[in-house]
Design goal:
By secondary structure, this protein is of the alpha+beta class. It is built from five helices and 18 strands. It has two domains: about 160 residues, no CATH class; about 60 residues. Keywords: Signal.
Length: about 260
């Protein structure tokens, strides 16, 4: 990602902003990663494709009882596997299908699992809780209790980028950029997380994982979608590449001076 574009968000958040009042218009969909014509979701270990009509079972008193018939061509998420009765795949809700030549079982690739883990990263209920303490999730530092010396001690190497931008000085380590007031000032003013494009993170996904923002809409500064969370002593800004269906560009956590 280009540092110049990333850091526009920093100066943008520091200034008085003018926004439109447009509301997000995104249809509901499962929160997960696209896997061919289906969505891989949290808790899912694989999927079965029905090759020939086959029975759907449930357990009653330790025995498999037929519930209904699954038709050829349908695909179902798998959440568990039991090495019983020749092997059964759990489809959720106490329903199972037997391991046989009538079905095809597949597991997601390593890449898909990593992509899902990125979404789960936002969906564990602690992103805003940490941000209220001045901590950007995924790294150990606090805007309140730590300073730049802690960053250098932790990483033990030089930043991949550093420089002045709009009155602040930033240093990048991995996906995180740590801002101070000027080059020789160790006190933090803001943290930024730069999206690496590992998996799409749209406003719909952020809203349904992180939580409902204090405000969202189109920035009159650059015409891109933004989501803002007022956390009292701190503020979080999610900046996107385009409209309310576009991918996340960056996240900024900063002190609130209001």
């Amino acid at each position: 990602m280009k540092i110049g574009k990333l850091l526009v968000m920093f100066s943008f958040a520091m200034a008085l902003l003018l926004f439109s009042n447009q509301e997000a218009q995104a249809g509901s969909a499962p929160i997960g990663v696209k896997w061919d014509n289906s969505i891989l979701i949290q808790g899912q270990i694989g999927r079965v494709t029905i090759l020939q009509d086959t029975a759907l079972y449930k357990y009653e008193k330790g025995k498999l009882i037929t519930m209904k018939t699954l038709r050829k061509g349908n695909i179902y998420r798998v959440y568990s596997y039991k090495d019983q009765n020749g092997g059964v795949y759990g489809l959720g809700g106490g329903a199972f299908v037997k391991k046989s030549s009538s079905i095809k079982y597949e597991t997601p690739s390593k890449t898909k699992r990593i992509q899902l883990a990125r979404i789960v990263f936002f969906d564990e209920g602690d992103f805003l809780k940490l941000a209220k303490q001045g901590v950007m999730k995924g790294q150990p530092f606090s805007l309140k209790n730590d300073d730049l010396n802690d960053v250098y001690d932790h990483f033990g190497n030089t930043p991949s980028w550093e420089g002045y931008y709009e009155g602040g000085y930033g240093r990048q380590f991995g996906n995180y950029i740590y801002f101070t007031g000027w080059e020789n000032d160790p006190e933090f003013t803001a943290f930024m997380w730069a999206n690496d494009g590992l998996t799409p993170l749209t406003p719909y996904i952020i809203k349904n994982t992180v939580g409902k923002p204090s405000w969202e809409g189109i920035s009159e500064m650059d015409g891109h979608w933004m989501m803002y969370y007022d956390l009292g002593y701190y503020e979080v800004y999610f900046s996107f590449n385009g409209d309310n269906r576009s991918d996340l560009y960056s996240i900024l956590l900063k002190r609130s001076y209001r």
